[in-house]
Design goal:
The chain is an alpha/beta fold and about 300 residues long. The strands form 4 sheets. Strands 5-2-1-6-7-9-10 form a 7-stranded mixed sheet. Strands 12, 13, 14, 15, 16 and 17 form a 6-stranded antiparallel sheet that branches. Strands 3-4 form a two-stranded antiparallel sheet. Helix 1 (about 15-20) packs parallel to helix 6 and helix 5 packs antiparallel against helix 7 (about 210-220). The protein has helices spanning about 15-20, 45-55, 65-75, 90-95, 115-120, 160-180, 210-220, 290-300; strands at about 5, 25-30, 35, 40-45, 60, 80-85, 100-105, 110-115, 125-135, 145-150, 195, 225-230, 235-240, 260-265, 265-270, 275-285, 290. The model has no long low-confidence stretch (mean pLDDT about 95). The longest helix has 21 residues, at about 160-180. It holds the Pfam family Formyl_trans_N. Keywords: Protein biosynthesis, Transferase. One of its GO terms (cellular component) is cytosol.
Length: about 300
């Protein structure tokens, strides 16, 4: 099997390494370099950086239309394997390959689209998974070859769960990929969808239930980071104590958003509509991210203040 591996994000690197070890990759297809945080210099996608280190050939077209199709066809690859690539493949492109595969980090048809890990955490799911599917014309609508469940304990962040998915993917995908007798089935169940996560998705509604805020803080880390206003300035809440499944629910006497106290071993106690959560890490304005102890050392007046 000769594979065109289409991927962009860091989550796909371990699978790329495993495919390379098996000698399966003919070409790595990834997104163009993009402006960095300061917008002055172009930054290569993580997949490109690692692919070049491995000695793989990399192709970065702006679009995958005629010119790109002709270039990719010259490699005579018989399979396309996509994992968080970021572009939709049309029928002409897919016709270049005898077999097509897509790795999707959810239990399809749940959370079709671009942000399934974020959605699983944000919705306080008790499990998620990885699906290997055939690439269809609709977004993540293709038939399923196999799927694997991943239990969630309610402490995962988008960062930690992405890392877990990336570590599991090679041992899950490769056996199915190399099985010449593999079969696929239609997706069953009610589809749900995920969409692009935007910076404004980090804005915390402090009237929300405690579980929702706990989940939002974790789902938004490391980006866009959940935030509220303290004295009119944004403060990012980047870490939260314990599991969302272990929150003790009661009705606080304090106004939702109140920073009530510091609790040793847990963090900064935050009152919400139906209980308390404990903030372990904070990113104040114009400062570096820090633990809640360090934050209070610099903002001793924060206790009793109300986030907005």
């Amino acid at each position: 099997m000769k594979i065109v591996f289409a991927a962009t994000g860091e989550i796909a690197i371990p699978l790329m390494e495993a495919l390379h070890k098996e000698g399966l990759i003919s070409l790595v297809l990834t997104a163009p370099d993009s402006p960095g945080k300061r917008g002055k210099q172009l930054v290569a996608p993580p997949v490109k950086v690692r692919a070049l280190e491995l000695g793989l050939e990399v192709y970065q077209p702006e679009t995958i239309r005629t010119e790109a199709r002709n270039h990719i066809a010259s490699y005579n690859a018989d399979a396309l394997l996509s994992f968080c690539y970021g572009k939709i493949f049309g029928p002409k492109f897919l016709s270049l390959f005898e077999n097509t595969f897509n790795v999707h980090p959810s239990l399809l048809p749940l959370y079709r689209g671009c942000s399934p890990i974020y959605e699983a955490i944000r919705n306080c799911d008790e499990k998620t998974g990885i699906t290997l599917q055939r690439i269809g014309l609709g977004v993540d609508e293709g038939d399923v070859f196999s799927s694997i469940e991943i239990p969630l304990d309610g402490t995962e962040t988008e960062e930690s769960l992405s890392k877990k998915v990336s570590e599991i993917a090679p041992s899950f995908v490769l056996p199915v990929l190399l099985d010449e007798n593999r079969e696929s089935r239609e997706q069953s169940g009610t589809p749900s969808y995920s969409s692009f996560v935007k910076k404004e998705d980090g804005r915390i509604d402090l009237s929300s239930p405690s579980a929702a805020v706990h989940a939002q803080i974790r789902a938004c880390y490391p980006w866009p980071k959940a935030y509220a206003l303290l004295d009119g300035e944004p403060v990012y809440l980047t870490g939260v104590y314990g599991s969302v499944f272990s929150i003790e629910h009661d009705i606080p006497q304090e106004e939702p958003g109140t920073l009530c106290a510091f609790v040793k071993g847990k963090g900064l106690k935050l009152a919400l509509s139906d209980g308390y959560i404990y903030i372990t890490r904070i990113l104040p304005p114009m400062r570096k991210e820090m633990d809640s102890t360090s934050f209070l050392n610099g903002r001793k007046d924060a206790i009793g203040k109300v986030l907005r």
